[in-house]
Every structure is written in C-alpha cells, then in structure tokens.
Amino acid sequence: MIELTEKNAQSRTLTLHNRLKVAEIRAVKMNVSWLLSVQIAFVLFVFCREYFYVSHNIPAAPVISTVLKHALIVIMAILCGYMIVLRFTRVLEKQFKPAMLVITLSIGVIWCFILSLLFYSEFGHLIFAISTLLMLSSLIALYPSSHHLFFATTPIWAIIVAHAMFFSGTLSLVYLAGYLVFAVLFETGRRLLRRWFVLAVMREHQNVRLANKLTLMSQQDPLTALANRRYFDHALQRAIEAATKTAQPLSIILIDVDYFKKYNDRYGHQAGDSCLTQLAKCFQQTVRNAQDLVGRYGGEEFIILLPDQDKHAAEKVAERLKISVFALALPHDQSDVSPYVSLSQGIAQWRNGMDAKTLIENADRALYLAKQQGRNTARLAP
C-alpha cells in the first residue's frame, strides 16, 4: 500500500509541460465565459447606442440598419448559446481544445462580420475603437493560450486593416504607424502576461512536488522505504473501520528478526541496515498483492496488514515469509537457531469490537510466544 501511495503521488506530480497544458485549458475554460460576457456587452452597446446617446443628452446617432439589427440579434443568440454550452454541459470535456479553437475563431469571425456591417452605417468611425476593445479583452482572457488568442483576434486584425484601406483608399503611413504601435503593445503585453502565467504554473508545480515529497516522507520509513509506524497505525485503523462495515476478516503479522542485536555486534551497523533493507524487499515481494501493507514498526520489528484474510491465510503468508528469508541466505553465525537470518512471527486476527491497540497487543503476545518456543517460527494469538 505504501507503493500505491508513492505511485499516486507520482501521478499527481505531472511533468511541467503537462501541468502547463492542463493549466492552459483550465484558464481558457474559465476565462472564455468572461470573454463571452464582454462580447455580449459589446453587442448590446452597438445595438443600443442610440438610446445611450439620448440618455446623455447627446444628439442621437442614426438608426442602425435593419440588417445590422437582425445580425446583432442572431449573434447575441449565438454568444448566449456558447455560454450555456460551456456552463451547463460536458460535451466539450473530451475534445476541449479543438472545440475552444472553433469557438474562439467563430467569435473573431462574428465580430469581423459585425464590423464589416458597420462600414455601411454611420458607425464606421467606431470601428477602430471597438476593435481595440475587442482585442484587449481577448488578450486578457486568452493570453494563456497563443492558439486561442490567434484564432480570436486574426479576423479582427483583418477588419482593422480593411477599415484603414476603406477610409483612406490605401494604408497610409499614419495608419500604418498607429497599427504597428498597437501591434507591438499587444504582442509585448501578451508575452509579459504569458511569462507571468508560466511562472505561476512553475511555482504551483514546484509546490505540488514538494507537498507530495513531504507527504511521502511522513508515511515512509527512510531506511527500508516501507510504511512507517505512524502511517501503518492510520492504515490499520481504516482497515478495521472497513472490516467492521463489511464483516470481513482482518489479520496482522508482527515480525522480529532473531538475535538482530548480535547480528549488529558481529557484522556492524551498516551490514545491519543492509540486512533490514533486503528483508523489507523480500517481505514486499512475498505478500499477496499491493493491498497487503508491509511496515517497519521499530528497530528490527516489521508488521504486515492482511485485509480480508483470516488467521489461517495469515499462517500461509508467514510460512512463505520464512521460506523466502531462508532463501536469501543472509549469514548470521551469532544466531542460536540458524546459520542464517531468521524470523519470529506473531499472528493475530481481528474480531468484531476489537480496536487496533488490542489487535497489536495480541500479535505481540503471539510473537513473544514464538520467541519463547525457540524462535524461527510463527505462532497464533490465543
């Protein structure tokens, strides 16, 4: 189970490139709703401008043409439809990026159409102002994704150039200079915002990696990479709660390395650490599956949690552990029971109403019994 925890931490720690892609999608998805709201506000402004003028005691602008009015109503419906789709459906989740490219491009084309209609009304002088606001609002919303920003603004850039040529007959130096200045400001602003966005994602990425590392350190024994005592106790408590609900059996095996103090005295503490590490790997390979939790409980003591297994199944696991450790053939010439490293094991089965402390005490009494009866054996708790 500690292996599963590590794998989960690794799966949560995406690469920076993948995390950046995920953050782009999240940001665009969140910001497009705001952008659509701004687009709707712009449509209302164009549609109701004559009323705004009247309310401000300014001479009324000429009435918008019937074609433009109808176009604005249709476009308003399209933009509202996009908002409903984004807010209340999950259709776009699997193909989010291409769907958003279509939406942003269609937004740009819609405004290209609206602005082209304004050519034939007396609102032509507003084209550059409206285009500038549209470009800046698109920049604010879509700067995390260059592709979406490009699709949303390219049609508007085209109408700006067409506007200049429509009024002057040619792209004069004055218009060209003004558009170049705006283009430079737009691109430098995009790069600046993008840089801050990437920096924020990098910081988030580093924080997630650090949090996962600290979580793993709090659960893992540093020498053997097994579950530490704190994590094991927590896992045991959860397993008991689950067993209480499902009425399934639950067993633990408490393990002690025979005469390990003599082993350290004979071979040294570095050899002792190496021995514990090899035993830890052996235990992990011998248990049934990842649901069986192997932990280091302190010093040369190990403990194994066996969910959904009664004491008889636990006995079979204990026997496999004994055989596997013997196969390691770790020399121990100071042992009184074997020329190789051996184990004493205490097995206890949880019963309904038993708490974790009592269960471990039962396993400890069984382990004591195994030591009293000659070590290198396993005993069941009474």
TrEMBL record:
The chain crosses the membrane at residues 28-47, 67-86, 98-120, 126-142, 173-193. Pathway: Purine metabolism; 3',5'-cyclic di-GMP biosynthesis. Keywords: Membrane, Transmembrane, Transmembrane helix. SUPFAM superfamilies: Nucleotide cyclase. It holds the Pfam family GGDEF. GO terms for cellular component: plasma membrane. Its EC number is 2.7.7.65. Its cofactor is Mg(2+). Gene3D superfamilies: 3.30.70.270. PROSITE patterns: GGDEF. It catalyses: 2 GTP = 3',3'-c-di-GMP + 2 diphosphate. GO terms for biological process: cell adhesion involved in single-species biofilm formation; negative regulation of bacterial-type flagellum-dependent cell motility. CDD domains: GGDEF. GO terms for molecular function: diguanylate cyclase activity. InterPro entries: Diguanylate_Cyclase (IPR050469), GGDEF_dom (IPR000160), MASE5 (IPR033444), Nucleotide_cyclase (IPR029787), Rev_trsase/Diguanyl_cyclase (IPR043128). Residues 248-382 form the GGDEF domain. PANTHER family: DIGUANYLATE CYCLASE DGCM-RELATED (PTHR45138:SF9), REGULATORY COMPONENTS OF SENSORY TRANSDUCTION SYSTEM (PTHR45138). This is diguanylate cyclase. The lineage of its organism: Bacteria, Pseudomonadati, Pseudomonadota, Gammaproteobacteria, Enterobacterales.
